[in-house]
Design brief:
Helix content: 25-40%
Number of strands: 5
Mean pLDDT: 89
CATH topology: Aminopeptidase
CATH architecture: 3-Layer(aba) Sandwich
Order of helices and strands: HEHHEEEHEH
Structural class: alpha+beta
Length: about 150
């Protein structure tokens, strides 16, 4: 199926607890590990109300991707006009077809409704595919630095 035709058939909607198994399966196909307890807890914690802005992409009734985000601020001296993208996952059969971009644009619209002015996310330095994706949709290096302390 051509990319444009595929994207026209995609429906973006709010993520629900009933999407748990589909999210677990996408995560398993991407990372090779099944983590149902992790995802159940994450979905329940994020809920489906403010500040959560989590969405799924469906194709013919099947979840093929998801994006999880929240609106928050005042942590780390950051104002409350910040949107955070926590997680994005696309079924490997549908990667590089525009679904992640479609989900990002949809969550960006949700963030705008809340008065968000900046969107942040964290990416592992070695994850070049994800880094390239975020760069391609317009992210730039921010003014915060992630600090880490390893307990030995």
């Amino acid at each position: 199926m051509e990319r444009g035709e595929l994207l026209r058939k995609i429906t973006v909607r709010r993520l629900k607890l009933e999407d748990l198994e589909a999210i677990v399966e996408i995560d398993h196909r991407v990372l090779g590990t099944r983590r149902p307890s992790y995802w159940r807890q994450k979905i329940e914690e994020m809920g489906n109300e403010h500040p959560s802005k989590s969405l799924v992409a469906e194709l013919d009734g099947k979840v093929v991707g998801f994006i999880m985000g929240t609106v928050s601020g005042w942590e780390f001296g950051v104002p409350n006009t910040i949107g955070w993208i926590d997680t994005i996952g696309i079924d490997p059969n549908y990667q590089k077809k525009g679904i992640a971009t479609l989900l990002f644009k949809a969550i960006m619209e949700e963030f705008k409704k809340e008065g968000v002015e900046n969107i942040y996310t964290l990416v592992k330095w070695e994850d070049w595919d994800l880094m390239c994706f975020f760069k391609a949709i317009g992210f730039t290096r921010g003014d915060m630095i992630n600090l880490e302390y390893k307990i030995k």
